[in-house]
Amino acid sequence: MAALPVSLKDLVRQSIFDELRKKAIPYATSVLLVDEAADAILLESNCSLTELMGLGIREKQLLFANRNQKDAPVVYFVSPGMDVAQKIVEDAARKLYTSAYIFVTSQASDDVFNYVSTNYHKAM
């Protein structure tokens, strides 16, 4: 039997799910935070909230929306811009979540990576 062709959309979707499964499942109540670019990727990849919940995500929120403290870990799925990095550090300073996992939609610049790695733990 010949293998069915796999679309790029399916590959992206599976990659997202595989990475989330590694980080979110041990914490069955994780919050998924996305920026507009990452949310568009989820939508284009047909990632439903029901499927995300099956991976241990209890809710999905937009990064730049007004958010309240959650007694839960957070999984960031975001684009690697400095504005996003600053918001992640701000969340740490506000102690909004118990722990954080950061996934970016593309490679982060050294400036962005260094900003988060230097300032995130200082903010905690």
From TrEMBL:
<dbReference type="GO" id="GO:0016192">
    <property type="term" value="P:vesicle-mediated transport"/>
</dbReference>
<dbReference type="InterPro" id="IPR036045">
    <property type="entry name" value="Sec1-like_sf"/>
</dbReference>
<dbReference type="InterPro" id="IPR001619">
    <property type="entry name" value="Sec1-like"/>
</dbReference>
<dbReference type="InterPro" id="IPR043154">
    <property type="entry name" value="Sec-1-like_dom1"/>
</dbReference>
<protein>
    <submittedName>
        <fullName>Uncharacterized protein</fullName>
    </submittedName>
</protein>
<comment type="similarity">
    <text>Belongs to the STXBP/unc-18/SEC1 family.</text>
</comment>
<dbReference type="Pfam" id="PF00995">
    <property type="entry name" value="Sec1"/>
</dbReference>
